[in-house]
Amino acid sequence: MPELTSRRGLLFGTAAIGAGALLVGCTSNESSDEPAANDQPAADDKPGKEVTIGFAGPQADHGWLNAINDNAKSQAKKYSDVTLEITEGSNDTAAQIGQIETLINKKVDVLVVLPADGKALTQVGLKAMRAGIPVINLDRIFNTPQAYRCWIGGDNYGMGLNAGHYIGEKLKDKADAKVIELAGLDNLELTKQRTQGFDDALKNYPNIKKVARQAAEFTVESGQAKMAQLLQAQSKFDALWNHDDDQGVGALRAIEQAGRDDFLMVGGAGALSAFQAIKQDSGVLKATVLYPPTMAASAIDLARALGQGKGVGGMAEFEIPASITLYSAVVDKTNVDRYMSTGFK
Amino acid sequence: MTQHASPPRDSTGKVQSADGAPAWRGLMARADVRTLSLLGVLAALIVIGGITKPDEFLDTRNLQLVLTQASVIGVVTVGMTFVIISGGIDLSVGAIVALASVWATTVATQEYGFAGILFTAVIVGVGCGLVNGVLIAYGGMVPFIATLAMLASARGLALQITDGKTQIVTIPSVLDLGERDAYVLGIPPLVMVFAVVTIIGWLVLNRTTFGRRSVAVGGNAEAARLAGIDVRRQRLYLYLLSGLCCGIAAFLLIILSGSGQNTNGNLYELDAIAAAIIGGTLLTGGRGTIVGSVLGVLIFTTITNIFALNNLQSDVQQIAKGAIIVAAVLVQRRTASTT
User: Carries keyword Signal (chain A) (predicted)?
Assistant: First the structure.
């Protein structure tokens, strides 16, 4: 008997090691794509004064935030006069405060901060400004303008507005048109802003009625689940706005599984998979409204201009602006090629 | 609270009443009442759904939808039920589903096609279960802590593998299983897997020594040990089983969503525990049924479905869900104590 057990043990052991080896080989997700950024720097390209930029962001736990980091890094690499000090991303407020304080102590020239929580990190923004380090506040805004020299970020209300107008224009000649909305995480203020913008835009089109809205959680899984329910609830509708392309992967899967193709879909954020589907034009997804991760590259440009005491190229001002709200462009088949390189995974 | 008293057991873990006669008749009757009350709750929900949205709710497609949406969490809950019956808890199920689903959908894994994805999902699930089991059974760790640690590490590893990116599955044979064309006699393949797992789970719990040992370990581990059961090995197997269920669930989720994402399986641990509890499984161990747990899952999925069909928003959904958990458990207690 002991012989049998040991032989069995040996067999299982070998199988386990083999399976382990195979699995470890399967963790690779390598791809060699260059992260995208626009090719127009704010100040001129010529090397100027050396600038050290400190960058602190949240943990890159989804595609968009990952693209933010990639954009910041690749933009900084373009300039021989820029040194980027990038911290390990963290969603923990205390940890992020610690990281920013470390950057302040290192006496970087300019700070670029995408806070995990804008309100909670206001104090450390103020501290940096008081220490004479100008702060570029990226996207999630601090409580007070005193905590940053320049804010640059996306426009959630504008996303909803532009999605609503795009759908409105497509359906304006259709009597009693029905629209549904697949929102993002309802706990977040940005979701409310997107919905508000969407509703406000639809008010311009009296023939269009929003018949249903369900909130998913920005994940593929929740997008699939909520969309499947929406499709069952609404046997006929003309357009769908989905707040987020990540959950849109799941929503598209549900649409495909239900075998529906009798409406037009507009996405949000600007993921690569959405751009590719729009370009192919074989499904319901016809457009997506941007929330561009290239803002991180722009923030590096702004930080460099600030460090060198220059203004923004193309503007007459001597200083960079105090606040920049980015436009949530609608990307459809006509202009998708232009934006393809900015798509994130 | 009267159910907490553990009746004496014989060496196989079978429950005996005070006079020595088998008490399974009484238990059976009580279990039936519990199951019936759950069926009552489900029937009430079906009536509500049928009245508020007759066309959309009472529809074959909707039945297919509800059962499909219940499949992934349903399979996880079957594994969880075994663990809870044995007096343990597995907080890592959602994280294991996430890790298995991303590991199985990397570019490298997808090169091995259908078999590669299935194999990886299952092996990663079993592997995590093995680590949980060894830590708890032989490392002497409290299940709550060991599986909490696994939750953190598995989520972290899932994030490291994906880098936060959504991994899209491009293998047609995997994707096709989620399409309507793959339905056999109107039954989606996912639902079939759920049904098979449920039936096997029921058989194992009610008709095998393994099942009786699981109940015995949960009822009184010391008595089980004295009765000659290898309690440690039994615990190891139970966490392995839970891991296996997570691996299968991850594969179902890959088919359903056509992708792998590190955010998958969010709060599955709470959903699975809640379903098992309203299904009548004792959190302290020693009692529980597979049928009850599956009914618990179906009740939750049906509630979500009715709310979505009536276009109620997430805030209302969450409030009502909490209220219904309380109501379901209260109804169950009342019906169980009056018999």
Answer: yes
Q: How many domains is chain B built from? A: 1
* DSSP for A220-262, written as a single string: HHHHHHHHHHHHHH-S--SEEEES-HHHHHHHHHHHHHHT--S
pLDDT, position B269: 94
* Closest listed residue to residue B78, CA positions, set B216, B164, B200: B200
Q: Is residue B16 part of a domain?
A: no
Which among B109, B257, B308 is the nearest to A250, CB-wise? B257
How high is the pLDDT of residue B15?
A: 46
- pLDDT at residue B191 greater than cutoff 80: yes
B85 falls within a domain: yes
CA-to-CA separations, A92 to A151, A174, B179, B287, in angstroms, rounded: 22, 49, 41, 40
The CATH code of domain A51-154+293-314 reads: 3.40.50.2300
Cβ <8 Å between B108 and A215: no
Domain membership of residue B288 as a residue range: 25-338
Amino acid, single-letter form, for residue B288: G
Residues 139-198 of B with CB under 8 A from A: 159, 161-168, 178-180
Given an 8 Å threshold on Cβ–Cβ distance, is B180 in contact with A273? no
User: Each residue of B109-123: pLDDT tens digit?
Assistant: 999 999 999 999 999
Phi and psi for A80 in degrees, rounded to 5? Answer: -75, -20
Interface confidence (ipTM) of the complex: 0.82
Q: Which CATH number fits the domain that encloses residue B111?
A: 1.10.3470
According to DSSP, residue B137 is labeled: I
The answer to whether B134 contacts chain A (CB < 8 Å) is no
Residue A10's pLDDT band (cuts 50, 70, 90): low
Residue B311 has its nearest CB partner, among A66, A220, A233, at A233
pLDDT tens-digit series, residues A93-131 = 888 999 999 999 999 999 999 998 888 899 999 999 999
Give the confidence band of A195 by pLDDT, cuts at 50, 70, 90.
very high
Range with the poorest average pLDDT among A199-203, A307-311, B119-123: A307-311
Domain A156-290 has CATH 3.40.50.2300: yes
Q: Is residue B11 part of a domain?
A: no
Is residue B7 in some structural domain? no
- Chain segment A155-189, per-residue pLDDT in tens: 999 999 999 999 999 999 999 999 999 999 888 88
A128 in helix, strand or coil? helix
| Domain spans in chain A, listed from the N-terminal domain onward | 51-154+293-314, 156-290
Q: Cα separation of B16 and B32, whole Å?
A: 19
